[in-house]
C-alpha cells in the first residue's frame, strides 16, 4: 500500500509559480526605479501586486497551499518592500526616519529567530494586521513615486501616499509586537509540560 503524499510538500503549483515570477521581477523593478523609468516600474509593481493577490486566492480556492508557498509569498512581499525602500531612499524620496523605522522592525523580528529555533517552534501564522501593514506599504510606495509627477496627479497622490506610509509603518510595528506575543505564548506552551514534570 503506497503512502499518501503530503499535499503541503508540493513545489510545482500555480500559486508557487506566481510567487517565483514575482521574485524574479524584483531586480527588474530595482533597475527601473533607479533608472527613473517610473511608469514602467509602476507597471511591474502592479503586476507583482496582482500576482500576490492571485496566488493566495488560487491556493485557497483550489487547495494548493504548500510549505514552499508559505515561505515564498511573504519573502516576495518583503523583497519588494525592501527594494522599494532602498530605491526611494537613494533617490531622496523616502526620508531617513521611515527607512530606520522599517529596518528596526525587521531587526526586532530577526532577534526573535534564535528563540524560535531553540524551542523548535513553528513560524507563527501571519496576523491580519501584518497583512494590512503590507497592504498599506505596497500602496504607499508606488503612490510616493506617482507623487513625483508634475501637475495635479502628483499633488493629489502626495497626501494619500503619506497617509499610507504612516499607517503602514504603525501597523508594521504593531504586527511585529503581536508576533513577539505569539512567540512568547508558544514558548510558554512548550515550557508548561516540562515544568509540570
Automatic annotation (TrEMBL):
Pfam families: CDP-OH_P_transf (PF01066). Belongs to the CDP-alcohol phosphatidyltransferase class-I family. Signal peptide: none annotated. It is a multi-pass membrane protein. InterPro entries: CDP-alcohol_PTase-I (IPR050324), CDP-OH_P_trans (IPR000462), CDP-OH_PTrfase_TM_dom (IPR043130), CDP_ALCOHOL_P_TRANSF_CS (IPR048254), Phosphatidylglycerol_P_synth (IPR004570). It comes from the Bacteria. It is found in: Membrane. Keywords: Lipid biosynthesis, Lipid metabolism, Membrane, Phospholipid biosynthesis, Phospholipid metabolism, Transferase, Transmembrane, Transmembrane helix. Its main location: membrane. One of its GO terms (biological process) is glycerophospholipid biosynthetic process. This is CDP-diacylglycerol--glycerol-3-phosphate 3-phosphatidyltransferase. GO terms for molecular function: CDP-diacylglycerol-glycerol-3-phosphate 3-phosphatidyltransferase activity. Transmembrane segments: none annotated. GO terms for cellular component: membrane.
